[in-house]
């Protein structure tokens, strides 16, 4: 039987305000709240709310046979709580169906997995705690930011306890292999890999309403038939999309919501079923190991990190940011720690990409870089005030060791208390 794994990624980026050089050291608030709220409202009303309502209807009309997965970073969830609480209510309703799996993702939609494994681990835990609090689920499958993955990241995720990881089915990794199988990490057979079918996913994301597309028009019956005609041995079809595909990239007038609503009917009619990543890894046997020696994402043509750190501007911004990780960790200032998370959003660096025309609310990649670096300069200055760069590394490491030991002791005590309860 063929298994369809539909996953949707939600991310609502917040806007940095126009921050001039002369404001460094004077103004420590970096955000354009009005623009963030306006953009979020647009995303929610045009895409996220109608999409989640459609998913709920799909579960109901299929009598619980439709299953899917959702990835939402922590910052986006907090923006929902602040500006669109109806989204949280609707997501809770989806969680209550027990047909939707919420995926683990870095709290700040960051690329920390590639630059600081300890910071990434902290963000995954922070996100897991929020998902448990809001939706009563324990995260078990990883959707890293931009589907970022490598053998090194695999090892770190295993250490953090994650044995199911979703990533891109890039051609340079798969070669002649099909993405329509369950695989395992080359690092450990204990970790299962689900690979996105980019062709089938992008057909919906980018070509659904394209009159020049060879398969136009795309309707649910034809698409389900296309899936059912794949080779019998290919049992896992991973269709993963940005949530904004529904209502924004493909607006409601294209019929994209009607297509989605009808898809389970035609798929179930053809003896296909819908599964979450956890259900897939439990039901299927991995076909072979997959090695990813260099970082891979679902972004750009090359499916690598180039859209985020492919030029000198991006590299300078990222390296300066993560150079102070240990000092930020020592800080007790909650606002500083909050700024630290907000400044890690991968979207900041994507706006600095020369190869795209999407620079957000900036005029150019240089404009995005200049504004971000002004903000970062003020942030680094505040970090330096608490833990100056004059502190020797040995002294800093001693402080970090003390903190690590305290955290381990606290965790052990909490575990003992939990067992006694």
Description:
The protein is α/β, with parallel strands linked by helices and 421 residues long. It has two domains: 3-290, Alpha-Beta Barrel (7-stranded beta/alpha barrel), CATH 3.20.110.20; 306-420, no CATH class. Helices cover 50% and strands 10% of the residues. It contains 18 helices and ten strands. The protein has helices spanning 33-61, 74-83, 85-96, 112-115, 117-135, 151-159, 171-174, 198-207, 220-228, 256-269, 277-283, 306-309, 312-322, 325-330, 334-342, 346-350, 365-386, 393-420, and strands spanning 3-10, 68-72, 100-102, 141-143, 164-168, 182-185, 192-196, 236-242, 273-274, 289-290. Strands 1, 2, 3, 8 and 9 form a five-stranded parallel β-sheet that branches. The protein has a five-stranded mixed β-sheet with strand order 4-5-7-6-10. Helix 2 packs across helix 3 (85-96). The chain is globular and about 65 Å long. The mean pLDDT is 93.
Write the layout of secondary structure elements.
Layout: E1 3-10, H1 33-61, E2 68-72, H2 74-83, H3 85-96, E3 100-102, H4 112-115, H5 117-135, E4 141-143, H6 151-159, E5 164-168, H7 171-174, E6 182-185, E7 192-196, H8 198-207, H9 220-228, E8 236-242, H10 256-269, E9 273-274, H11 277-283, E10 289-290, H12 306-309, H13 312-322, H14 325-330, H15 334-342, H16 346-350, H17 365-386, H18 393-420
Helix pairs in contact: 1-3, 1-10, 2-3, 9-10, 13-17
